[in-house]
Amino acid sequence: MKMAERIRGEKKRIYEIIKSKENVSLKEIRVTTNINQNTIRSAVVGLTNAGLIERVGKGTYKAK
């Protein structure tokens, strides 16, 4: 089972948004989804540690 198949809930929703765009900021995700900023931040940290996304700049991420 791939790591991308094991994520679910808000984290999966955030991952799909990051995957659909070339680069995306945390503010863009918040505006698009209306998810709490802390939830987004913790999901992004988990996705980064899992190796599914990478940080491009301050507050900007892209899918690997």
Task: Give a structural overview.
With 64 residues, the protein is of the alpha+beta class. It has a single domain (3-63), classed as Arc Repressor Mutant, subunit A, CATH 1.10.10.10. The protein is built from 4 helices and 3 strands, in the order H-H-E-H-H-E-E. The chain has a 3-stranded antiparallel sheet. A hairpin with a 2-residue loop joins strand 2 (53-57) and strand 3 (60-63). The longest helix has 13 residues, at 37-49.
In the sheet with the most strands, the strands line up as 1-3-2
Tell me the fraction of residues in β-strands, as a range.
15-25%
Structural class: alpha+beta
Mean pLDDT comes to 89
Largest β-sheet summary? 3 strands, antiparallel
Task: Kindly report how far apart the N and C termini lie.
Answer: 18 Å
CATH topology: Arc Repressor Mutant, subunit A
Number of helices: 4
Query: Low-confidence spans: pLDDT under 50, at least 5 residues?
Result: none
CATH architecture: Orthogonal Bundle
Q: Which range best describes the helical content: under 10%, 10-25%, 25-40%, 40-55%, 55-70% or over 70%?
A: 55-70%
What is the fourth-level CATH superfamily?
Winged helix-like DNA-binding domain superfamily/Winged helix DNA-binding domain
Number of domain units: 1
Task: Please tally the β strands and state the result.
Answer: 3
